[in-house]
Specification:
The chain has 13 helices and 21 strands. The chain is α+β, with helices and mostly antiparallel strands.
Amino acid sequence: MKTLALALLPLVILQAAFTGCVGASAEAPNVLLISFDGYQREHMWEQLEAGELPNLKRLMDDGVYLDLSQIDYRTQTKVAHAQMLSGYQSATTGVYSNGHVFHALPTGYTFLERAEEHLGGDGIATGFISGKRTNMAPVFSMMEGLDYVSIHHEYLENVTGGTGEKFLAFIDEHHGERFAAFFHTTEPDKLGHIYGENSPEYSGGGEECDRYLGLILDSLGTHGILNDTLIYVCTDHGFAEGGFNHLQEPRTWLITNDLRLEVNQGDARLLLPDIAATVMYSLGIPLEGLGLQGYPLQEPLPPEADGRLEVMGDVQPPIMVLDEDNDLNKQFEDRGPLTVRWRLDDERELSRTYVTVREAGLKYVNGSCGNLVYESSEINGSTASFEVTFTVPRYEESVYEVSIYGVDERENITVQTIILSSDRDPPQIRVISVQEVQRVSGSLLSLKCNFTDPTGITAVEAYIDGDLLVFDSCSKTRVKTLERTFDLSGYERGNHVITLKAVDVAGNVARRDVDFTMEDNGRLYYIVTNMIGLILGIISLGVIYKLK
């Protein structure tokens, strides 16, 4: 009996730790914000009901669950976390989507920096730990005063420990002092992009997040500070049902042991900026004068929050009309300053407009979509006209993309891109070989060709009878070799057309058709030819043996 009692002791301690989730007081000194990236609300509920998320379920059963939304139309990681940590929307943060980060989040905007400012460097330990570098580092590169920052490409667990071990190490190091931290996982979002939302891998990512939540709760319990820690677990955006992306998936969620949030259960007006306001409220940070666009959820939302519902229903981007008499390419060839004119119209209020310039054909790096050459102030009204003059650098054989963005108050984005180039010549296509390499139970097509262009290739394609065989995007490659083998067992014998296409950075398109015949020699033909080959091989070996 004594052995059994000792064996049950850890379970008793763990149960007490989880029970402590209920008892986290409103004056709890510690705050943890944990973001499970891209965890679709419906998928999370399916796994909860299947018993696959025991730690989230225990936190939910003893705490509060809320439905939230990401109000910005591009529901992506950069946008969502800028809102979640600052309490402001895109017009203030300057972060509009993963590919449109015109500004890093200004210094001092995160709840972690505000905690340092309010409580002093000796009054609180702060940590920012993320497993996504590309989609987080550009936004949070200007944070100052934090005790620990880690932003790396890594899963929760890998051969070196992973992001999850950094979460636990932070708690181990700072459990004896007051702390506020943000923990962010790559899972299950990245797995959804690779395998799809309905995949076992995506579910496994959710289970791994839940396992580390359990380890975090265990660690807080072991250190005796679970009752002193307010925990907010959420996701940044949803995920397309059965899909591989989440461009317009605003349905998010929040689970917490902060029972004060019960006053807002069932409210459809809750948004991601409310999370930052809620965390700041729990840290005792004065919110007056900050101009936050989020509300602290410890208190009922005020009546003016009703306007959110109307804005959330707007899914139409602004209409952009470029001045047709404004020939930007003619100005570019004349090597003078460039002037572009456009008008924006929207059924509701407009927000901002931007102009960016970048060398064409280069993939964006860390969210950069080029040099920002114009940024408007806040637009008042639903109609506005603009005229902007700017210059671009000139290099030999350069091609540029001028992109004009219009944004409304819902953060719907419209964009028009103008290619600047004097290049009118399409790429060159050279076919090296197109041949059938097997014909027994199936048929394989061996294709090898080169694409060349002095300004750079951006994409190559190959078709058979109009059916796409391959699409390969490039990053301003001047010489591109395509060498692939394709299974054509589903095609009939006889004549076919292989179509090759290439696009250069100036938008010029080259096309070449190659006639190709799939022969039907029959199985007997291949048996005979293989036997002849075998006999010739044996004869060759005999000759070699005699020569020896």
